[in-house]
Amino acid sequence: MNSEKAFLGVGWSFPPEFHKHAGSLDVKTVEEEDDIRESLMILLSTRPGERVMHPDYGCRLNDIVFEIINESTITELKDLIERAVLFFESRITLENIDVNTDEIYDGKLKIQLNYIIRRTNTRSNMVYPFYYIEGSQVKL
Questions:
Q1: Distance (Å, rounded) from C-alpha 42 to C-alpha 61?
Q2: How far does the chain reach from its first CA to its final CA, in angstroms?
Q3: pLDDT of residue 10
Q4: Which of 48, 69, 68 is nearest to 58 (CA)?
Q5: Where are the alpha helices (DSSP H) in 1-140?
Q6: pLDDT in the model for residue 105
Q7: Closest Cα partner for 8 from 134, 128, 126, 118?
Q8: Is 53 helix (H, G, I), strand (E, B) or coil?
Q9: Mean pLDDT over residues 67-86, rounded?
Q10: Dihedral of the alpha carbons of 113, 114, 119, 121, in degrees to the nearest 10
């Protein structure tokens, strides 16, 4: 780990991966900017109430599953993300959120978060695929 960026953190990879090393089982970890990116993925994928010891943690994106996607819904989605990042990811400043609706008829939105890592003043972004029509590809 780069000692200049040690404050950005180290965490388990998501989903967790394990590998054998010298006769022991080690967990794969991610560092620095990758840790922030995976932390955001976990935050957006977690429903409040899922974590027993931290019941407020998460983002209420699942509240809009099956909603009609219009400007009002997109505004609500952005607000949910902004609140979750504000309360649970203090390492970044969220600049803006772009919602790509190109795959709307497939039940998928691509949510791009553009942010600045506060301690390094580094700009970064990530894309979160949000499936608002769950199970739309199920074939019986």
A1: 12
A2: 48
A3: 66
A4: 48
A5: 32-45, 71-88
A6: 85
A7: 118
A8: coil
A9: 95
A10: 170
Q: Give the dihedral sign, CA 15/38/62/109.
A: negative
Q: Write out the two tokens for 120.
A: 């390094």
Closest by CA to 118, choosing from 93, 94, 97, 96, is 93
What is the spatial distance between Cα 135 and Cα 40, in angstroms, rounded to a whole number? 24
C-beta separation of 59 from 46 below 8 A: yes
Could you tell me how many helices (H) and strands (E) the chain has, helices first? Answer: 2, 7
CB 115 within 8 A of CB 94: yes
Three-state SS at 138? coil
Q: Share the mean pLDDT of the chain.
A: 84
> Where do the domains of the chain lie, and which CATH numbers do they carry?
3-131 (3.10.450.40)
Nearest-CA neighbor of 126 among 63, 50, 46, 39?
Answer: 39
**In the structure encoding, which two tokens stand for residue 1, read together?**
């780990």
Rg (CA), the chain: 17
Within the chain, what is the greatest distance between any pair of CA atoms?
Answer: 55
